[in-house]
Amino acid sequence: MCEEFLDFIITNKIIESDVILSRWDKNDKNGLNAYQEIGFEVTGQKGELVELALDIKKKALKQDLFMGVKQDSIVWMSHADKVEKIPEGFVELAKSGNTHYCAIADFERKIYAIQFHPEVVHSECGGEMLKNFAVNICGAKTSWNMHNFAESEIAKLREIAKDGKVLCAVSGGVDSSVVATLLYRAIGERVIPVFVDHGLLRADEREAVEEMFRENLGVPLITVDAREIFLGKLKGVRDPEVKRKIIGETFIEVFEAEAKKHNANGEMKFLAQGTLYPDVIESVSVKGPSKTIKSHHNVGGLPDWMKFELIEPLRELFKDEVRALGRELGMPESMLMRHPFPGPGLAIRIMGEVNEEDLELLRKADRIFLQELHSSGYYDKVWQAFCVLLNVKSVGVMGDNRTYDNTICVRAVEALDGMTATFAHLPHDLLERISNRIINEVEGINRVVYDITSKPPGTIEWE
Fold first, then answer.
1. Residue 305: what pLDDT?
2. Which top EC class applies here (predicted)?
3. Is 447 helix (H, G, I), strand (E, B) or coil?
């Protein structure tokens, strides 16, 4: 985002809302005051989570916000409030079939308010609306591009690191790989990329990551075997938030121990990681009173006892932008189009306690699922695909014998940036083949189910 737009936001007091704020939390005085200063009054509530056609006033179609937006454009609303009366000075710009005031404006004060989400892929003309607001209304420049961003970030990293070393946390996913590539361009071999095998990886993941860095990036990768440490700390833990926090804290401890090996003269002062904007949104309140959806191991800063400063060059980017940055840096598509894999790994794809037996079951099922997606050509058609071990047993029949075994849930979603997602409509014959292979080839699994939940209301990962 250009500096001029940021200055406009600051000087013109643009108010950012979210679902929690729209529920009118009486304890949130700042949020309420911001709305009341404009002229809103709290009058009632109405819960919605719907796609609807936006009925735009004919005059508004020719005005800045809706310039080029088609009539009956589909938008996405997911709020728990209803505007029954608009403040003095505002006019209605758009409504839906059952909701007035989907968009309003006070042209004199240059205040625009909307009740829907233009930023999600479900709002078909949302990008045009945001562009109209940024460029036509705020006067932002359009000179920003990924080439300029890459050059700017490389220069920033050189300035930050100076003559020191940077420890780079690598998972093998696109995010941390792009960060490692950026750092290598900026400071060369003074970046120390470290890949931690926490025992929660997919089948053959460690070998694949090592080969990928060796063959494609030419960046020397250090692998730390910390399987016993992580699995030991997770023993007996069932709560998903506790699992995430244990894994996050243990990552930091392992990285600090590794840093000491390369820090004889105290020259290593930074830890770099591939935090993205969706991670931040789901983990912490950002510029507003949003609730934590789930903790991300790479969000929340470093503990006080750790001597590193954090470097997060992708913190304000979405996944599709990170991939575009990787292409700008010349990274191969095979790396950029890998499906996202969470930092906590398979720990959050096993419902309940994590143990070696369940990890092996899940790895075998997951490998079959991904093999079938690759062979059918569907791997590159979905955003993310994986298996979840539900730890729910049911009765089955294998041959003439009764079984009482575990259940695997197959999950595949389509998305643009990961903020929202819809379940992938995989062909029935493909799902049948996947189910048959998992049940026949993975001893201990006798039932396979397919998750048809979108985000929201669900998250992409189960925990």
1. 57
2. ligase
3. strand
Q: How far apart are CA 356 and CA 251, in angstroms?
A: 19
Check pLDDT > 60 for residue 164: yes
123 is in an annotated binding site: no
The answer to whether the annotation marks 375 as part of a ligand binding site is no
The secondary structure of residue 46, as a DSSP letter, is: -
Contacts of 372 (CB under 8 A, 6+ apart): 430, 433, 434, 437
Ligand-binding site membership of 394 (annotated)? no
Exposed, middle or buried, 413 (CB in 10 Å: 0-12/13-18/19+)?
buried
Quote the tokens at residue 431: 């799902």
Where in the chain are all domains bearing CATH 3.40.50.880? Answer: 3-137
> Where are the strands (E) in 148-278, listed by range?
165-170, 191-197, 222-225, 268-272
- Residues 297, 447: Cα–Cα separation, whole Å: 31
What is the per-residue pLDDT for 41?
Answer: 55
State in words which class domain 355-450 has: alpha beta
Q: What is the DSSP letter of 21?
A: G
Query: What token pair was written down for 179?
Result: 């960060």
Mean predicted lDDT score pLDDT of the chain: 83
For residue 457, is the peptide bond before it cis, meaning its omega torsion is within 30 degrees of 0? yes
Closest by Cα among 357, 400, 387 to 447: 387
Least Cα distance to 199 among 345, 351, 320 occurs for 345
How far apart CA 417 and CA 434 sit, in angstroms, is 27
User: Which segments of 57-117 are extended strands (E)?
Assistant: 73-77, 91-95, 103-106, 111-114
3-137: CATH architecture:
3-Layer(aba) Sandwich (3.40)
pLDDT of 409 above 60: yes
439 phi and psi angles, rounded to 5 deg: -65, -40
Residue 175 annotated in ligand binding: yes
Q: Is the CB of residue 288 less than 8 Å from the CB of residue 17?
A: yes
Architecture of the 146-336 domain: 3-Layer(aba) Sandwich (3.40)
The set of residues, in sequence order, having a beta carbon less than 8 Å from that of 84 and lying 6+ positions away, is 43, 44
Cβ density class 356-384: b for 16+ within 10 Å, e for less: eebbebbbbbbbbbbebbeeeebbeebbb
What is the residue type of 309? Answer: E
What residues contact residue 319 under an 8 Å CB cut-off, 6+ apart? 174, 175, 276, 278, 340, 417, 418
Q: Encode pLDDT of 114-157 as tens digits.
A: 888 888 877 888 889 999 998 888 888 888 899 999 999 999 99
What whole-number percentage of the chain has pLDDT above 90? 46
Bridge partners, 447 (sequence order): 407
Q: Is 173 among the annotated ligand-binding positions?
A: yes
301-311 pLDDT per residue, tens = 566 656 778 99
